[in-house]
Every structure is written in structure tokens, then in C-alpha cells.
Amino acid sequence: MALPLVKKDDDRDDEEYSPFLGIEKGSVLQEARVFHDPQLDPRKCSQVITKLLYLLNQGETFTKVEATEVFFAVTKLFQSRDIGLRRMVYLMIKELSPCADEVIIVTSSLMKDMNSKTDMYRANAIRVLCRITDGTLLTQIERYLKQAIVDKNPVVASAALVSGFHLLQTNPEIVKRWSNEVQEAVQSRAALVQFHALALLHQIRQNDRLAVSKLVTSLTRGTVRSPLAQCLLIRYTSQVIRESSVSNQTGDRPFYDYLEGCLRHKAEMVIFEAARAITELSGVTSRELTPAITVLQLFLSSSKPVLRFAAVRTLNKVAMTHPMAVTNCNIDMESLISDQNRSIATLAITTLLKTGNESSVERLMKQITNFMSDIADEFKIVVVEAIRSLCLKFPLKYRSLMNFLSNILREEGGFEYKKAIIDSIVILIRDIPEAKEIGLLHLCEFIEDCEFTYLSTQILHFLGIEGPKTSDPSKYIRYIYNRVILENATVRASAVSTLAMFAAMVDSLKPRIFVLLRRCLYDSDDEVRDRATLYLNTITEDSSIVEGNKDVKEFLFGSLDVPLVNLETSLKNYIQEPSDDPFDIDSVPKEVKSQPLAEKKAPGKKPTGLGAPPTVPASTVDNYEMLLSSIPEFSNFGRLFKSSAPVELTEAETEYAVNVVKHIFDSHVVFQYNCINTIPEQLLENVTVIVDASEAEEFSELASKPLRALPYDSPGQTFVAFEKPEGVPAVGKFSNMLRFIVKELMIAKYPLLHGYFSKVAVLVRDRATLYLNTITEDSSIVEGNKDVKEFLFGSLDVPLVNLETSLKNYIQEPSDDPFDIDSVPKEVKSQPLAEKKAPGKKPTGLGAPPTVPASTVDNYEMLLSSIPEFSNFGRLFKSSAPVELTEAETEYAVNVVKHIFDSHVVFQYNCINTIPEQLLENVTVIVDASEAEEFSELASKPLRALPYDSPGQTFVAFEKPEGVPAVGKFSNMLRFIVKEVDPSTGEAEDDGVEDEYQLEDLEVVAADYMLKVGVSNFRNAWESMGPDYERIDEYGLGPRESLAEAVSTVINLLGMQPCEGTEVVPSNSRSHTCLLSGVYIGNAKVLVRLSFGIDGPKEVAMKLAVRSEDESVSDAIHDIVASG
């Protein structure tokens, strides 16, 4: 059958061309009109059907109308006598049957072909009829199918038997009536017919063990001639043997003689199948294994790679349970180490490692060393695991095996391969005490040049546990501290913890390690500094104190005897309702719960049940039980039987929102009242619910737990417990009255500050605590404590850089005297704030303050949540990279970061004043959104002052339709007041001049609403997403310089994460597939499969397939590409 070919250039003969390049559904459907021509052209019709089949198999979707029209057109081709075309027609009908209407009308033509004299027509007609028929029609053609099963032509008989397999799934009762015909077909001389007949007969009888046993008994007497059928029979025989018991009198297995006889069959596939079946028998003995091993040993020297692979893989499995039975094959397997097929060589190596003795270890290691460099990582992992098992088997050989693992650890390899080696060394260290010191040194050498953060941290943790127990712990300190100097923040933090473990366990090393830990106090990463501070304050240089304070030591480096989730719950309850007594860890429940405290809930989604705190979702009994067991008054109530859904006790929009959850115990009921205070001007204290149980006679109030304080918009709980007859389903009605003490708050300060206690960001909570503790409601105290007021809100009379330097010096060399701010030099340095950087080099992350690096959404979210105007915008979805709005070397350097929320966009303008003689005040950006119609300006936050070379930020917020990827162009004008600065004194003049500075335009594009999130296995992710919301279409991208340019353009347009390296296009490639993943605004996962093709004139065509969790998101991706 001829296919359309693309003409090759003479100088491009080596390039691969696809005959289906550039095929589009619309053009092929137009070509399908050829089916209606009075004079049919079989060759042309076959080509069109080929294209249609290609589109269907590539996942192209046809509408019902399109499929039905094509189907009717194809049926007209039955009038052609061309055999090749007729076979294509059969294929087309089978492919279109699920999506076309009125497929059944072709039945008459197919039934006519079933009775045709042409066997090829008959066989294909049977296949198609069984594919499209229903139960009603099947009874009409059953007679023809039975005749076909025993037909003399093997093609027709096989077609009928295979059709029986498919029909058995939908109409089993009808197919079971064919047993006599199928039994007769089993005796056929045609190999495939006998194979298909045996498989179908077993399928019919598979649920009847006795019938299967009789079938095997009758056929093992030698009536099966087909090698394929013989392999099937061996498998069925193995199944019967597994379900039978060994004879108590003779000790023989039923049918074992048959399996052993098959080892002498002339067909290799039968011999191997029998050998494999014998090796897989349960409880197989060495005597039973011997003939199978002998046959497999012969296969090891076969010239056919498939036989060598099958034999060595089977022997590898046998070596796991019967290594001594395989030792006779060792010489043959050693010759396979140099086999060109690396899979065979790997299996041979691992088998030898399992069967070798202690004296052969050295010889094997030499052979493996040369072999390892030639195989892929997945094979290397298998070898490493085999070596680990060998070392545990022969522990005296640990030196040579450990050295081998160390050598291959230094070679190139991926993460999984390196992890397998590390895991092996760790296991050997734990199980072979003599290997500890040499193993730890190998690990230390590895982390000196380790590219994988995870492995470095795991090794450092292991060093912290095992290193102090060695004879000379000090030799590991150099390796560990090198990680503090040379590695990334995650590894540095892990190294600090490891150093602390050495300090806590080895007193002689403590002074040296304390010097190293103090250096870590100035690390650039918060986590490293915090860990160093923690360990320096909890592990003291006085050994006696450490010995006397073993709780601290156990807390830092030991294992807690209470579940962490229970400890977290108890600590949060203690913080919510603090007392004068210190927290007692003995009060934490020690029972391990089956489910962790935090439930998997969607980001930003409010907890079910108003007032339920984030740590105790109102959805599971386990979490409620954990909460109640931490309250002493209810801890002896026994096991919680059930918790109800929250029941609302107040109307919507009331001052106080209250709902109740009923907790049912065997002889108690606890009412949990979840409360929220919605009045900003009020603080509620001593909150409780007075319950009237006069209409619930079987209940008696036992205890109550009031809520100490309920600030504005902070959830809280109060509880009332009742006793009831044990095991009795008592019922009743309860009246409820909320009682509390109201305290009016100064709205200008306290309500807003109290509201920030619930913020996630630590910086926000800490600032709220600071201000609440330093600013009191008594104005006289504030007036009398002007130093506090000046410190918080005034301006320091010393440069910040000098203050920072003095504080660092004070920390390095502390004294008993308090720090004196008057000791800070007041001289203004020539280069404030900026560190020693090359002249003209802009600071990294222009305008980003030290506490808010411009690299993570978390830090941006922390910054924005601290600004009242933006604190209610919800969860930050994405922050863009900074976009420069000014040229280099200009008077004012400005860039912008776009912060995307669900229904808002905030522009953060990072500014630097590069003119030493000027101070800018009241700095803001005037934004013209006339070309962004869907945006409306909501708020702006100007910058109070912008001194020379000090980064600052000003913000402008816009509102947009919720969840809509609105786009637009914004014009920007920097507006400010300029004040001249005296260079000699550094003081600015009182009067200033208002000025403006034009900035570059800014665009919000569709890619801003897409978060780059990769997937480890795109194929699994694609299949798990499912085709429910899949959208597929084709686009012409016009002329492009290369396919790589087209791929890059589409990736930038969508803003998604390329997967599996598919963003790289091979040179001179004519087609390419690119895989992308991401999260669309609204937290909807999106997967995209792009198929590109380029023709001679460099016109690029693209097929876009999108799968997502939301139909509208799939449509939105197509809209972006269509409009882009």
C-alpha cells in the first residue's frame, strides 16, 4: 500500500522524514470525499484511510457528526473488489465503531462477507461483526461463528476463536455454548488455531478447578503439537500443581513428569517454559531443580541473545533461594560478563555475586570494576545491591567490598545510583562494626564533592549519630565544617546540627566546636543562624551542666517518647490559654494516633466548622479525640465514639458567630462551642456558654472549660461536658446562652494588632507582639517613656551600617555591661548599606530589603501581608521576576515585581536613588491603566523617603475580575519631591521641589497567571489526569527560523515548566514533542503536550493537547495560544 512521501533533498539523505508530517484533520476530511467518486481509485482511497487511521491513533477526536459521515462514506467502498482496500475498510469500521452512530447498518454487508468464498473476507468480517454487534444480533450469527471455529482454513478459525475472547467479556453465556466446537479446534493441526482454542477453552472453564484439572490431564498425554499451545499448557499445568498437594506416599508432585518431559521438546520456547515452571514450583527441591538447571546451563552458551537472557534471568531468581543449585553454572556465567548485551552481563554479575564463595570475591571484584563503566545507572544499582548482600554474607571481606563501593562513588552517576551506594555503605556500617571507621571516612570524602543536597544532609546526620562513637571523633570535624563554608544553606544548616551533636557527646571537642558554631552566627541564612544560636544556648561549655541537664540533650539529639503531633497540639493549647506554671511535657498524651493532626485541605480553604482552628479540622474523629484528650477535664472520658458536623447557633452577619460540635462518648457528651468575635472594637474575656438542660432530664452537667480571651476575628473554643447513663442513647433539648466580659479597645491600635496574631508569617507576629508590649493604653506611661517611642518610630542619629558593625562586635566579644548606643561612631561612611561591591555593579535583587529576598513567593507574601492595604487580598499565587523599567547608569534605578492574587495584582516598584546630593521624599509611581481595561486601581503605598543608594519600595494595587487571567499594558511615571543634601553634613534642606521621571511601560501577560511546577514522570501524570477535560487543536505558527525558536516562543507564551528536557530541540530536527506542566491561577494543575512540525519553507505547525483539572482551564490555555 502506497503512502504519501515527502521529497528529500540530495544533501539531506540522512535526515528522517515522516510520511504523516503536516497532516490536519480538516484537510483529511476533505480528501475523504474521494470515497463518493463513481470510479473508485483503490490506491487513493487506501491513502486517505491510512491518514484517518493515523489521526485516530494519535488521539485526534472526531465529533459524532464527523465520525458518522466518514463511516457512511467508507461503507460505499464495499463495492470495490480490491482486497487491500477491503481490509482497510474493515479496519476503519472497527476504529469508528465507538464514536459513530448507526454503525449497525453495515451488518448486512458484513454478514454477506461472512459467507463469501474469499477466506480473507470471511475472517475480517467475523472480527468486525463481533466488535460492533450486540447480544440480540449475536444470537442470529452464532451458527456462523460455530461453523467458523471448526473451519478448515486456519485464518478463519483463528478469527472466530479470538473474537470469542472479546465476546466472553460481554456475552459469556453465549460463548460458553461453544465448548464442543472449541474442544474440536484444540485437536487442529494448525499451530495458531490450537493455541487460540486452548486459551479460549481454559478461559471458559477457569472458574471450575475440576474442569481445568481434567483439561490438563487429557492434554498432557501428548495431543498438543503447537509449541505456543504447549507453552500455554505448561502454564496451566503449573497452576494445577500449585493448587494440588504432594503425594504423601511417594512424595511426587502430580504432573511433574510432564514438565520434565517437556525439557526434551524440540522447540526452545517449550523447553524454557518448562524449566521456568519447575524453578517456580513452591517448595521445589534440589533433585527437582537439577534437570531444569542443566537445560538452562546449555542455554547460557546459545548463540541467540534472547535464550541467554532468559536463562540467566531465571538462574538469577533461583540463586535467591537455592544458590548452591546454581554453582555448577558459574563458569558459563563468568563468560557472560563480557556479553555485548549489557542486560545479560548485569544479570550474570548479580547471579555470580549470589552464588560465589568467599574465595572468589576478589576475582569477581576485578571483573566487575571493568564492567561497571559500560552499563547504565539502572544496571549499576542492581550490581550495588548484590554487592551489599555479598558483603553481609561474607563480613570478613568488607574491606575490598567497601573500597569498591567507595571507588564507584567517585565516578559519574545520577542521584538514584549514588543513593543506592550511600545506602549500602550505611547498612554495612551498622551491621559490620569493624567497617564503621573506614565507611565513615568514605562518606566524608564523598560529601567533599557531592552535588546532591539530599545525600549531603543524610550523610551529615548519620555522621552526627555514628561519628562521636568512634575512637577519634576529631578527624571528622574538618569535613563537617567544610560544608558550613562551601555548601548551600540546607547543607550548612545540617552541618551545624552535626557539629552540635559532636559537641554534646564528646566533651573534649566542645571548646573547638563552640568556636566554629559562633562563626555560624553571621551566616546569611536564617536557619543556619537560628540553629547555631539554639545549640550555643542549650549546650554549655561546662560539662557538669550538660550532665545535669540531660533533658536538653535528649530533646536536641534523642527521640521523644510522645508523638510530635500530640506535642504540637498541647503546645498550641498552652499558648492559647497560658498559665503561670511552666509547660509540662508529661501532660502530653503518649498514645500514637492513626492520622496526623493537619488534614490535607486546599490552600486558602477555610476549615469546616466555623471557629475550628487550623490545627484541628472538624472533619475527623481522630483529630477531635486528640484535642479533647489534651484537656485534663475530659481526658478520662474514654474513647470518642462520634463527633457531629458543626451546627450553627447564630444567624449570618451577627456580632458573634457560634457553632457547636457534639462529641459523643460512652457515658458523656461534650459540647464544643466554636466562637468568633466579629467586632474590631471589642475584646471578649472569660467566654463561656451557660447551658440549660431542663428539657434533657437524663443529662447532668459535669464540667465546663471557659475561653480566657477572644480577640477580634480569632477563632476560639469553649467546652461544656455532660454525664449520661452509660451506653444509653439519651436525647434532649438544650438552651444556650453565651456569657463573657467585654473590654472596649482603642481601635487606632489594638484591634488591628491583635488581628495579626493569626498571621502565618513569623515577622508579622513578632512585630505585633513587640508593639503590643511596648505601647500601653496608659498615655502617661508612653509620655514618660519617650525612649521607647523614639526607638520605635523615630530616626536614629547613627548610621545603620555603623550600628550593625558595633552590634556584631559586641556579640563576638560580649561583656557584663549592656550595649551602649552612644559608643557607635556617628561618622557617615562613604558607602552606606551597600557591601563591598564592584563599582557600577547593581545589587542583586534591586530594592529588595535584606529581610525580604526577591527569590521566593513566601518572602514576598510575608512582605505584602505586613502592609494593611494588601493584607486582605488572600493567598499570593505568584510573584514575577523583577522587570527593569530604567536603563543602566540612570539617575534613578527602578524595577518592578508583579504580585498576582486571585482578584488583585500588586506592582512592587523597587527604587534606588543614585545621586548622592539628593534625598527623594513622598516617592510614588503614577500608573496609567488606560490600555488595561479590566483593571481598576485600588490602593497605593508611597515611599516616605529614598536616601542615596538605599533601596526602597512603593506599591500600587489593582483590582481585576476574580480568577480571570486579565492582561494589559501600563504606563508608569515616577513622582517625588527632591531635596538637596549638603555633602559635608549629610543633612537635607527643608524645602523640596516636586519632580517626575518617565519609566518604561509594564505589561501583565497570560504567563503571569501560570506557576511553573514540574512533574517527575510526565506520562504517569498525564494518564492519571484523565481525558475528561482534555482539549486538542492545531495551530499554524507561521514561518520561523528554526523549530527551536518556535518551541521557545510557545514555552515563554504559556509560562509553564518544561518536563524531561523536552525544551531542547535536536539540531536539524523536522518534528519535536515538548511536554509542559504548571499550576494555573485558582490552583488548577495543567499538563500540555506540544507536537511541532516544520516543512521546507520553514512554516511551523503545532498540535496542542491540554489536560487539566478544570474544563475552563483547558479552554483558557487554547485561548492564550490562539490570541498569542
UniProtKB/TrEMBL annotation:
Coiled coil: none annotated. Keywords: Cytoplasm, Cytoplasmic vesicle, ER-Golgi transport, Golgi apparatus, Membrane, Protein transport, Repeat, Transport. The keyword Transferase does not apply. Residues 578-616, 814-852 are annotated as: Disordered. SUPFAM superfamilies: ARM repeat, Clathrin adaptor appendage domain, Subdomain of clathrin and coatomer appendage domain. It is found in: Cytoplasmic vesicle, COPI-coated vesicle membrane; Golgi apparatus membrane. Residues 587-602, 823-838 have a biased composition (Basic and acidic residues). GO terms for cellular component: COPI-coated vesicle membrane; Golgi membrane. Residues 623-745, 859-1004 form the Coatomer gamma subunit appendage Ig-like subdomain domain. GO terms for biological process: protein transport; vesicle-mediated transport. Residues 1007-1121 form the Coatomer subunit gamma C-terminal domain. It is a peripheral membrane protein. Residues 27-541 form the Clathrin/coatomer adaptor adaptin-like N-terminal domain. The keyword Protein transport applies. The coatomer is a cytosolic protein complex that binds to dilysine motifs and reversibly associates with Golgi non-clathrin-coated vesicles, which further mediate biosynthetic protein transport from the ER, via the Golgi up to the trans Golgi network. Coatomer complex is required for budding from Golgi membranes, and is essential for the retrograde Golgi-to-ER transport of dilysine-tagged proteins. Oligomeric complex that consists of at least the alpha, beta, beta', gamma, delta, epsilon and zeta subunits. Belongs to the COPG family. This is Coatomer subunit gamma. It comes from Ilex paraguariensis (yerba mate).
